[in-house]
């Protein structure tokens, strides 16, 4: 790979920059815009000969790729990352790509396993990039359930905790309390069907149409890089950095815990910008997690989140608050959805829907145009591979020939794909109404008839742009199926459950295609990829509900606005379902007008971004990112902005090292703080409370407290 140097080329920087290629590509590969450029960076002469580097290494069979150590390591990492994603889900809903840290830790743990066996005089199988790919696929599919399972959105949105805040449609027919048993059963019923949906299309999408799948491509470069001498050397340094910041973050969380012995106590409620700013949720909460998230997310995302916080909590909500008694009754509490809270929630929803609708239409148009272009192109020229899998007369590089040969070698029988889809769909149609009596069997049948088409559109669009619109398809299901059922027939619950069905199918199918692309580029067998996806999904269907249940039982205020775990998207998704069945009749004065304005603004901003040259459009904010703090506040936005600023300065001082070690530092901060949540939850379940409450008061309140205590 091309060597990268910086203006401050300290000794060893060139070596770091050269080995950092895979990590750098992967870090930006999930960012959507620009991801294609990152993945296409593989077209350089050095990258084109990657398989010649591994030419002397035998490719293990698909059974040899599925090792015991790979599954054990996958299970450990699945638990770890499920906890982290669950915490992110229940705090802000912002989930960065954790594939770099999953890849690094998978590589590290297997190396640790191998070295331990060698010290005991036992010789095991060599650690191959194919086995590494299996681990990556298994872990990502497992912790992906923590997101697509809806624990911070549609699933938790069914609960009584969220329904009480929504004030509408909070009757028993539209509520289902979380319980470990039905959540595990529900996930097993809806999470596997997407795996079978697009298996027959893998050759067309990966080999014939050569779709990029930037995240899958970037992951492959990461894994291929680990298994070269230079990449292995860099990976060891990255793991050491990750471990160092993991420990710092973990013990910082432990230290903070001692001062959080009461409501609004501790460093998380430190009024760093003053008490007035604190009341408007502007403060730095000393969260290593979101500093790390800010280092991983692109700078424009962090700036957009910060801008959204300033517009909402800095300007809009204080101004609307002054209209109390005019726009909404003055007697209502701040949390009522007939008062100020309605503006926060529904304007946020308007931005999300405007952004989602625009990108849905854009990706759909690109998908259709790209598909037509591919068909037209292939009708004029021979496909790269003929129907029987043998190369055609068209010239192929050594890499492409080698990868295509092995990719088509281990076929997944069509009977497995079609039969699996039919069996799982039949079981779901018969069983899901037992979990949700409001969800009639014919709703599910319609969803499963439509789902493969939507899954193909999403997977094809993801292959072109790296944008998965699974949550957008889920929101469409909320409105369609909720309105079909009607409020009196449990339409809110129907909409949320249908969202789960659709989102799981579309998301899983797209993820599988990304995994197939990774396997294609690392010579991993499609069979091993398919099986590891099934195993990882099975792990996730058990691990994620258990992790959520731990949070749910340990923290009594989970899902409450203003708490440590407000689950902001749960109330958003529930209110979308209410809108779908009940309309806009209950909104306070001028709320609907503001929603229309922000919905149109989201579309207009996206349109301007797409029509403006890149050198200008990269400075235009993202409406979806701006919407996040509208409801929950700006405290995490300050953390993310600080993380982004740290990385920006680091890149200016030494870009090579920032590119190589920035993701490792960020991952360490996220993982350490996330894993601290486990012992914190156990302490809460054991009724062990922090010994100190550190709280900040105004001078006047402090005088009153002193007088009271002195009296």
Q: How is this structure best summarized?
A:
By secondary structure, the protein is mostly helical. The protein has helices at 13-19, 21-29, 35-40, 45-48, 50-53, 62-65, 68-91, 99-119, 129-148, 160-166, 180-191, 193-197, 202-208, 214-226, 229-257, 275-279, 288-296, 299-321, 340-380, 398-407, 414-435, 441-465, 470-485, 491-522, 526-554, 568-582, 591-611, 614-617, 623-632, 635-653, 655-685, 699-710. Helix 25 crosses helix 31.
Number of E strands: 0
Q: Tell me about the biggest sheet?
A: none
Radius of gyration: 25 Å
Low-confidence stretches: 1-48, 382-393
How many domains make up the coordinates? 1
> Can you give the mean pLDDT?
82
Structural class: mainly alpha
Structure characterization notes:
This protein has 32 helices and no strands. With 711 residues, it is an all-alpha fold. The chain has one domain. Helix 8 runs parallel beside helix 14. The longest helix is centred in the middle third of the chain and has 41 residues. The radius of gyration is 25 Å and the shape is globular. It starts with 12 loop residues before the first helix and ends with a helix.
């Amino acid at each position: 790979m091309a060597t990268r140097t910086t203006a401050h080329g300290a000794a060893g920087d060139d070596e770091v920059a050269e080995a950092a290629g895979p990590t750098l590509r992967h870090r930006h590969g999930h960012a959507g815009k620009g991801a294609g450029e990152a993945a296409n960076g593989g077209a350089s002469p050095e990258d084109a000969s990657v398989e010649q580097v591994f030419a002397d290494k035998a490719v293990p069979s698909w059974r040899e790729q599925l090792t015991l150590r790979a599954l054990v390591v996958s299970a450990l990492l699945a638990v770890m990352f499920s906890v982290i994603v669950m915490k992110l889900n229940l705090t802000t809903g912002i989930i960065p790509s954790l594939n770099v840290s999953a890849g690094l830790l998978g590589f590290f743990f297997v190396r640790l396993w191998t070295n331990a066996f060698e010290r005991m005089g036992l010789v095991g199988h060599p650690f191959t990039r194919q086995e590494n790919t299996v681990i990556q696929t298994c872990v990502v599919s497992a912790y992906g359930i923590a997101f697509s399972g809806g624990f911070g959105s549609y699933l938790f949105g069914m609960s009584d905790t969220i329904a009480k805040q929504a004030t509408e449609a909070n009757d028993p027919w539209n509520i289902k309390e979380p319980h470990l048993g039905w959540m595990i059963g529900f996930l097993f019923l809806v999470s596997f069907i997407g795996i079978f949906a697009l298996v027959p299309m893998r050759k067309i999408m990966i080999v014939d149409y050569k779709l990029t799948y930037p995240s899958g491509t970037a992951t492959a470069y990461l894994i291929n890089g680990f298994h070269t001498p230079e990449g292995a050397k860099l990976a060891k340094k990255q793991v050491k950095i990750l471990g160092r910041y993991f420990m710092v973050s973990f013990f910082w969380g432990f230290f903070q815990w001692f001062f959080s012995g009461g409501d609004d106590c501790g460093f998380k409620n430190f009024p760093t910008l003053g008490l007035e700013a604190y009341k408007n949720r502007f403060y730095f909460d000393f969260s290593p997690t979101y500093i790390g998230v800010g280092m991983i997310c692109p700078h424009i995302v962090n700036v957009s989140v910060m801008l959204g916080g300033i517009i909402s909590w800095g300007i809009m909500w204080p101004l609307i608050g002054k209209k109390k008694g005019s726009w909404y009754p003055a007697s209502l509490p701040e949390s009522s959805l007939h008062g100020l809270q309605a503006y926060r929630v529904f304007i946020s929803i308007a931005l999300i829907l405007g952004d989602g609708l625009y990108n849905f239409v854009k990706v759909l148009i690109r998908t259709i145009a790209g598909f037509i272009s591919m068909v037209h192109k292939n009708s004029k020229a021979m496909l790269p591979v003929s129907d029987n899998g043998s190369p055609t007369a068209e010239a192929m590089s050594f890499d492409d020939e080698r990868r295509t040969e092995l990719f088509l070698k281990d076929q997944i029988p069509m009977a497995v794909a079609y039969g699996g889809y039919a069996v799982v769909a039949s079981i779901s149609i018969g069983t899901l109404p037992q979990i949700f009596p409001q969800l009639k069997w014919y709703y599910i049948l319609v969803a499963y008839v439509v789902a493969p088409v939507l899954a193909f559109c999403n997977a094809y669009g993801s292959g072109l742009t790296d944008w998965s619109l699974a949550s957008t398809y889920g929101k469409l299901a909320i409105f369609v199926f909720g309105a079909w059922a009607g409020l009196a027939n449990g339409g809110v619950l129907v909409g949320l459950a249908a969202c789960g069905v659709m989102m799981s199918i579309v998301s899983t199918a797209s993820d599988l295609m990304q995994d197939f692309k990774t396997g294609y580029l690392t010579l991993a067998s499609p069979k091993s990829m398919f099986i590891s996806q099934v195993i990882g999904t099975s792990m996730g269907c058990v691990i994620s509900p258990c992790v959520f249940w731990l949070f749910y039982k340990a923290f009594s205020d989970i899902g409450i606005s203003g708490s440590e775990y407000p689950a902001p998207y749960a109330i958003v998704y529930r209110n979308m379902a209410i809108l779908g069945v009940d309309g806009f009749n209950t909104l306070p004065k001028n709320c609907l007008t503001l929603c229309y304005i922000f919905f149109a603004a989201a579309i207009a901003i996206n349109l301007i971004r797409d029509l403006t040259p890149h050198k200008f459009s990269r400075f235009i904010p993202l409406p979806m990112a701006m919407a996040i703090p509208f409801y929950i506040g700006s405290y995490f936005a300050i953390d993310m902005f600080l993380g982004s600023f740290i990385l920006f300065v680091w890149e200016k001082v030494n870009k090579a090292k920032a590119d190589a070690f920035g993701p490792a530092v960020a991952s360490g901060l996220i993982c350490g703080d996330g894993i601290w949540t486990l012992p914190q939850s156990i302490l809460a379940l054991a009724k062990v409370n922090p010994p100190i409450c550190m709280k900040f008061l105004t001078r006047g309140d402090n005088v009153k407290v002193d007088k009271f205590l002195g009296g």
